[in-house]
Design brief:
By secondary structure, the chain is mostly helical.
Length: 90
């Protein structure tokens, strides 16, 4: 049997003991894990934004077509009214 004693609580958990290196690796692992989680959240947000952007784009195209159609119909109606007025006033 050896004469080494087990490290104390203070030695293991951050007061300059021999286990500080293990804590640094644990902290690094946590930071990498947090970065990966943030990356996954960012990817999910981008995907949701992309879907929303496609819906907005489709809605804008449909709206523009309706405006164009309505304007065209309105101009035709005005021309028709003007021609009726001009032909009836003769």
């Amino acid at each position: 049997m050896g004469s080494k004693q087990a490290p104390s609580w203070a030695d293991q958990w951050g007061t300059g003991g021999s286990y500080d290196g293990d804590n640094d690796r644990y902290d690094d692992h946590k930071q990498v894990e947090k970065k990966n989680n943030n990356s996954k959240k960012l990817e999910a947000a981008k995907a949701a934004a992309s879907v929303g952007m496609e819906k907005a784009k489709a809605g804008a195209v449909i709206g523009a077509q309706k405006v164009k159609s309505g304007t065209s119909g309105g101009i035709k109606w005005l021309k028709n009214q003007y021609s009726k007025k001009m032909s009836s006033s003769k």
